[in-house]
């Protein structure tokens, strides 16, 4: 096809040899299949900030690393320089997360480069060699659903062990290749340690999985894997091997029954005193 304008700089630099076709136009990006030498890859072109949606929310901005305080101030003020910086931080967030996660052994597309607002990465392919289907488009019976759910919880744990929370994990941001689920779409990924909303984000990601797989595995609907994983992480004991049950134990400290009985006795005495005085 004719090279789209946003991909021209990559063609000029020799990063892409040919643009084969448009794969998807999502809410945040347009994705193309491209040829680089004799490899087929995928190029994700980020939409301009004003065409994007909820990821602009403040919750996602918190904890983002910026190069220096001048950048941070400019971004806060929303100057033109600041907006350009914010855009760069946003665009680099996904490639940064992909590098960190690939190094941690998480199943994500191999990243190559982010250049001029375009992320060049591995094209995840399905059994037929074409672009892999999204989890949402894969027919599931209970056995396969259980396998994928377990595999994805493992991936979420590995991500968290690497300090990363996806922040928008759902059946639309998971592809399925011959070896199972692959996680994609990470520009909003957040730093587990640097954000006050990290726990809530993690629990939402994990409960999205339970809701999706719960359609064929109803027992997942009341599970508490998110809370369980977050508790282990906060206690500093989460590892890739942590056994998960989906249940969170009731608080460990036993209720102080004695104190409750004393409270009741005191209340009764007070009431008796009140009655005695008012009757006098
Ligand atoms: N590495 C990849 N390999 C194959 N398909 C991909 C890849 N990355 C994205 N896609 C396809 O493009 C779609 C949009 O990409 P995504 O990263 O989810 O961006 P958006 O923010 O627009 O949702 C995905 O749902 C998927 O179908
Ligand atoms: Mg997506």
Strand order of the largest sheet: 1-2-3-5-4
Largest sheet: 5 strands, antiparallel
The residue-averaged pLDDT reads 90
In CATH, the topology is named Transferase(Phosphotransferase), domain 1
Class inferred from helices and paired strands: alpha+beta
What string gives the helices and strands in order?
Answer: HEEEHHHEEHEEEEHHH
| Estimated share of beta-strand residues | 15-25%
CATH H level: which superfamily? Transferase(Phosphotransferase) domain 1
Distance between the termini: 99 Å
List low-confidence stretches.
Answer: none
Number of helices: 8
Fraction of residues in helix: 40-55%
Q: What top-tier CATH class fits best? A: Mainly Alpha
Bound molecules: adenosine-5'-diphosphate, magnesium ion
Radius of gyration: 25 Å
Number of strands: 9
Large-scale geometry: elongated
At CATH's second level, what is the architecture?
A: Orthogonal Bundle
Count of the domains = 1
Based on the model shown, name its key terms.
alpha+beta; metal ion binding; binds adenosine-5'-diphosphate; 8 helices; two-stranded antiparallel ribbon; single chain; 280 residues; metal-binding; non-specific serine/threonine protein kinase; binds magnesium ion; Transferase(Phosphotransferase), domain 1; five-stranded antiparallel beta sheet
């Amino acid at each position: 096809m004719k090279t789209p304008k946003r991909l021209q700089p990559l063609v000029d630099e020799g990063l892409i040899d040919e643009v084969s076709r448009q794969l998807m136009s999502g809410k945040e990006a347009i994705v193309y299949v491209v040829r680089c030498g004799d490899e087929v890859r995928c190029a994700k072109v980020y939409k301009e900030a004003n065409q994007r949606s909820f990821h602009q929310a403040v919750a996602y901005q918190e904890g983002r690393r910026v190069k220096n305080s001048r950048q941070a101030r400019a971004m806060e003020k929303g100057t033109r320089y600041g907006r350009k910086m914010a855009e760069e931080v946003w665009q680099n967030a996904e490639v940064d997360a992909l590098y960190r996660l690939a190094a941690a052994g998480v199943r994500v597309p191999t990243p190559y480069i982010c250049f001029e607002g375009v992320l060049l990465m591995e094209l995840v392919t399905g059994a037929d060699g074409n672009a892999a289907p999204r989890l949402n488009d894969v027919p599931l019976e209970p056995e396969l659903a259980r396998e994928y759910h377990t595999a994805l919880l493992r991936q979420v744990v590995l991500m968290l062990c690497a300090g990363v929370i996806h922040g928008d994990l759902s059946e639309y941001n998971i592809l399925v290749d011959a070896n199972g689920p692959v996680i994609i779409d990470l520009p909003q990924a957040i730093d587990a340690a640097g954000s006050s909303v990290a726990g809530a984000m993690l629990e939402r990601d994990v409960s999205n999985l339970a809701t999706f797989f719960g359609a064929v595995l109803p027992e997942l609907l009341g599970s508490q894997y998110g809370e369980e994983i977050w508790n282990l992480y906060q206690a500093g004991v989460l590892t890739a091997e942590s056994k998960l049950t989906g249940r969170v134990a009731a608080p460990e400290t036993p209720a102080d029954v004695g104190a409750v009985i004393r409270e009741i006795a005191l209340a009764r005495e007070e009431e008796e005193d009140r009655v005695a005085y008012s009757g006098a």
